[in-house]
Structure formats: structure tokens, C-alpha cells
Amino acid sequence: xxxxxxxxxxxxxPIGTLxxxxxxxxxxxxxxxxxxxxxxxxxxxxxxxxxxxxxxxVNDIVDAKFDxxxxxxxxxxxxxxxxxKISALIVAVVLSLLAFILAYKFLHKHTLYLSIPALIIFISxxxxxxxxxxxxxxLGLAFSMGILMAFMEIKGNINLITCLLFxxxxxxxxxxDTIYAMVDIRDDLKIGIKTSAITFGGxxxxxxxxxxxxxxxxxxxxxxxxxxxxxxxxxxxxxxxLLIYQIISLLQNExxxxxxxxxxxxxxxxxxxxxxVVGMFG
Length: 282
Description:
Elements: H1 2-8, H2 15-32, H3 38-62, H4 64-67, H5 85-106, H6 109-128, H7 135-154, H8 160-183, H9 185-191, H10 196-200, H11 204-225, H12 230-251, H13 258-263, H14 265-281
Helix pairs in contact: 2-3, 2-7, 2-8, 2-14, 3-5, 3-6, 5-6, 6-7, 7-8, 8-11, 11-12, 12-14
């Protein structure tokens, strides 16, 4: 039984949490222009975990009927009947309340105000796949709210640097989540789910490449604006190499590699976060 609940919250597959965590931690370091307060790092890390897991549970509740008809998701706990929707809803409510309590107790008031729409966006994302042609853009918005909150918590405002990080992350999410959507494109076409992989059609790989290019260029600009050292640019180049490798692999149209290309983005995020730290302190 416990295994089913761990699976429901994706604790067995933490890739989504990590993809949300690296940009958020990076934003905290940039906003502080150094080491953020330890309690802030801890609160934001737990906040990322709680928000992401709550979003996953809501996603599975909303998509239960669809998940049954998709090969990759048919064995999720709600889809296979291991956990009822009522039980899952209770889990989602508890996780959401914990996330809000955490923000209320430990974050500044203006950051708390941002946490409310952030949580709403996360929870409402599954519904956008019903009518919005590029739900990956909405997910990108959800995955970028932590950046805004980081700057509000540390600096008390949102500036040009915040916007660079926000939009860089937005385009990165559109890119890698479109790859993720390519894994299920046949099933999604059958059941009527809308994704960017379907919407972009034959231009899907060039558009992913464009999203990655914008992501890379915005981070290059960031480095020059805040005067990061050469270590940052070495890490940025390594991350860029991983992005190029993904595009080359996608162009070869080997469908069995799509998911592994998506997973590579964890390394992109980790290396870039490391680059920000090295670039500022090295």
C-alpha cells in the first residue's frame, strides 16, 4: 500500500521535482548574489517537493481515465485501481495545505502572495490539456513561479535578471516537456489530449531546438549582466552540448530514445546550477 502512495506522489520518479528544483535554487543564489540564508534554501526545497507532489496527485486524479489507455501510464495507482480518487484527493489537499503553511510560517508576506497563484497554476495544469494547444507553455509558467518567489523573498522585487531567468526557464520547459510528450504522441492522438508535440507537427524538433537556443542565449546574457566568471561559461557550454545532443538524437527519429533525451535535462539543470555557483564563487 505504501508503495502505491509513493508512486502516486512520484517519489519513485523524482525527475519532475529535480527539474523544478535546480532553477529555483539557482534563482535563490543569483538573487542573493551569494549564499542565501540556510532556512530559505530549506523552505524552498521542501516547498518545491510539496508543490510538485501535490500537482502530480491532482494530475493523476484528473487524468485517470486517460491514463488507463496510455501504455506508459496505465499502471499508475489511480488508473489501475490501487488507490481511490477520494484517497488521492485527501493526499493532494494535505500536501497543498502543508505547502501553504510552510510559506505562511517562513516566507515574507509578498512571497506568500506569489505562492498562492503558483499552487493554483500547478493544480490547474492537468485541465489545460483538454483545450489548450500548447499546455507545455502553461507547465513552463508553473515551473518558473519558484524563480519569481525566490527574488521576492531575497530582494523584495522582480527585476531584469528575474525576467531573464523566468523566460529562459519557460522556454527550456517547453522544449523538454515537448520531448516528454513525443513519447506518448500516438496514445494522445487516440484519446484526444492536446500537447505541443501534436500541435507543432512536422516542425516539432526545430521548435524544440529554437526553445533550447533561446534558453541558452538568455543564460549567456545573464552571465554577462551579473559578471560571472569563466567557470560559469564552461558549465553553460556543457549544458548547451547536452541540449544539442538531444536535438541530434531527435532528428534521427529513434522513438525509443525520446524518454532518455528528456531525462538528460536533469543534468542540464544540475550542471547549470553548479555553473552559477562556481561562476559566482569560483
